[in-house]
Known about the structure:
Layout: H1 2-8, E1 12-17, E2 25-31, E3 35-42, E4 46-53, E5 57-60, H2 71-80
Antiparallel strand pairs: 1-2, 2-5, 3-4
Amino acid sequence: MFFIILNCMRGEYVELPCPFCDKGKIQCWHIPSLSVIRRRPTATFGNTKKRVTSPDIWLIKSGCNVCNKSREEVEKELKRKGII
Ligand SMILES: [Zn+2]
C-alpha cells in the first residue's frame, strides 16, 4: 500500500518566482508529463502505434509571502503568463 502511494507521488518540488512582485517564492509540486506508446493490432494495417501523453501537472502549494497574493491568484497569473 505504501509503495503504491509513493509510486503515485512522482514529481519534483519547484520554487517559482512570484508572477506579481518577482521577489516572493511560490512553492509548487511539478509532475512532468509522461508519454506512453500504445500498440493496437488491427486487421488491415498491422500494428498501429499511438503516443499518449499525459499533461504536465502543477500543484501550487503556497501564495506569495512578499506581496500577500493568495494561492489562487498566483496560480491564475502563472497560467495566464504561460509559465505553468
Ligand atoms: Zn509576490
